[in-house]
Amino acid sequence: MKLLIAIIAIAGTIITYNLMKKIYIKFFTPFMVPILTTTVVIAGVLLFFQIPYETYMVGGKWIVHLLGPAVVALAYPLYNQLDTIKKYGTPIIAGVFCGTIIGIVSGIELSILFKIEKITTYSLVPKSVTSPVAMDIASVIGGNPTLAAVFVMVAGVFGAVFGPYLIKWIRINHFIGKGIGFGTAAHGIGTSKALELGEREGAISSIAMTLSTIFASVLSPVFVYLLL
Question: Rg of the chain over CA atoms, in angstroms?
């Protein structure tokens, strides 16, 4: 029975994603980004048929396990753009470092402003890094790993949806700026969006995502100690 549920969950997710991707290509608007529409459709189906999340994850967990290989696959555009990365190494590192600090501090300060409870604040701090690392950071600083994963998902989707508008609004035209913005603020989801802009943007976003994860792991406990 579990095997059948797993197959249905995996097949349903893949079919839904591919359908949403075709719709996205046809209309090509950030609000139709596949990961957002797919999430909405699947959540709607689960709610309508009153299917427990745990039942869906019997198969869904295997898709989650593919996140690791997917991240590793980002090494290919990185390799292709190795000379560019060497050329712009200093501004990339400086930009990601500053972006990571802004991401952490803004989350803490907004939590203080709106008087959010401490455990939620601690879970919000690592919102801009990839889920497995964010969950580890949250557990170390006193947050809820599950809640941290939710915030990571929200940050990624918001970055993919509103990032293109923001980049256009503030007139960021260089591929380095675009890549750093998506990778630092919206991790893997942002990187997939950056790849749509071009291989160079995707490569920079990939390295930005990696660097921001390293910086956030070190800086999150420091800023929590200093500001909370």
Answer: 18
Q: How confident is the model at residue 84 (pLDDT cuts 50, 70, 90)?
A: confident
Say what the pLDDT of residue 27 is.
82
Which of 221, 194, 220 lies closest to 103, judged by CA? Answer: 220
Spans of all domains in the chain: 2-65, 75-227
Cβ contacts of 208 within 8 Å, gap of 6 or more:
92, 95, 96, 99, 179, 180, 182, 183, 184
Alpha-carbon gap, residue 52 to 60, rounded angstroms:
12
Q: Which tokens go with 148?
A: 């941290």
- Its pTM stands at 0.85
Residues contacting residue 223 through CB under 8 Å, at least 6 positions apart? 101, 104, 105, 108, 125
**Mean of the per-residue pLDDT values of the chain:** 88
SS (H, E, C) the chain: CHHHHHHHHHHHHHHHHHHHHHHHHHHCCHHHCHHHHHHHHHHHHHHHCCCCHHHHHHHHHHHHHCHHHHHHHCHHHHHHCHHHHHHCHHHHHHHHHHHHHHHHHHHHHHHHHCCCCHHHHHHHCCCCCCHHHHHHHHHHHCCCHHHHHHHHHHHHHHHHHHHHHHHHHCCCCCHHHHHHHHHHHHHHHHHHHHHHHCHHHHHHHHHHHHHHHHHHHHHHHHHHHHHC
